[in-house]
Write a structure and sequence with these properties.
Elements lengths: L5 H19 L7 E7 L28 E5 L7 H6 L4 H6 L5 E5 L16 H17 L3 E5 L18 H14 L3 E2 L1 H12 L8 E4 L11 E7 L1 H17 L31
Helix pairs in contact: 4-5
Keywords: Hydrolase
InterPro entries: RhgT-like, SGNH_hydro, SGNH_hydro_sf
Family: Belongs to the 'GDSL' lipolytic enzyme family.
Length: 274
């Protein structure tokens, strides 16, 4: 008389269950690219200019492994020169559905004293419209960002707005085209106000003589960021993505502080709500 082996009887059912689970398990999120276009405030830097840091450099650290940051921003570029140098078309050609393009210009567009890069407000708007339309044509997602502030305080210690016309133009295009807008100009000014006129120096490329071998004469730069400054600006951008509930925010790797503008302030400053 033969006895059935219970293990042999159960084993086929286990195998069948595993096969069914393999077919019914949700597919992992597909990887998407996050393209950055803009100027030196966001761009990758070379080691010879360290500790100068563009805020696009630490941006990828805020997302999980399904987001690949492709930073195409370049020093000294305006919307006009970015297009004229054929830096935009390769991005358009590479865009895939659900990718993102973060667009932040303005610093060089508004430089009337530099005709090689200056772009009139009217042409600036047209160029932003082109970026938006061609991104959407590839079923990707444009996000407009107002130009990040420069460090400029008045005698009473109040932060001054340095990109009035071009920030307004960016916001106008965003409203007209129903594009998400990250008002980094406003947010970065609020951040600098909380650090104060002196305390905010740590966010920028402010170095004394012989403080760093790349800058033996020192550096007094109120436009470009230190490592800390770049990270804080990137944090503001990601914080606003979450606040606006952009789909990209679902891929943020770690929870952000409740109020990103109040974190990691210098020990000798007293943050206040502006």
């Amino acid at each position: 008389m033969k006895h059935n082996d219970p293990a042999r009887t159960v084993r086929p059912y286990i195998l069948l269950l595993l096969v069914l689970m393999a077919f019914t398990a949700p597919a992992p999120p597909k990887k998407i690219k996050l393209y950055l276009i803009g100027d030196s405030t966001i761009a990758q830097k070379i080691k010879q200019t360290f500790p100068e840091t563009g805020w696009g450099m630490p941006l990828g650290t805020f997302f999980d492994s399904t987001v690949v940051v492709d930073n195409r921003a370049q020093n000294g570029r305006s919307t006009r020169t970015f297009l004229a140098e054929n830096r935009w078309q390769p991005i358009v050609d590479a865009l895939q559905p659900d990718d993102y393009v973060l667009i932040q210009f303005g610093h060089n567009d508004e430089a009337k004293d530099k005709p090689d890069r200056y772009t009139s407000p009217e042409d600036y708007r047209r160029n932003l419209l082109k970026f938006v339309a061609e991104t959407r044509a590839k079923k990707a997602n444009p996000v407009l960002i107002t130009p990040v502030t420069r460090r400029k305080f008045d005698k009473e210690g109040r932060i001054m707005e340095t990109h009035v016309e071009y920030s307004a133009a960016t916001a106008e295009v965003a409203t007209a085209q129903k594009v998400p807008l990250i008002d980094l100009d406003r947010m970065s000014r609020n951040l600098l106000q909380q650090y104060g006129a002196d305390g905010s120096k740590v966010l920028f490329l402010q170095l004394g003589p012989d403080e760093h071998p790349n800058y033996p004469q020192g550096r007094n730069d109120n436009t470009h960021f230190s490592e800390l400054g770049a990270r804080k600006m990137a944090q503001l951008v990601v914080y606003e993505m979450r606040a606006q509930k952009l789909p990209l925010a679902e891929r943020i790797a770690k929870p952000l502080p409740k109020n990103a503008t109040l974190t990691a302030s210098p020990a000798n400053s007293q943050p206040t709500t502006p």
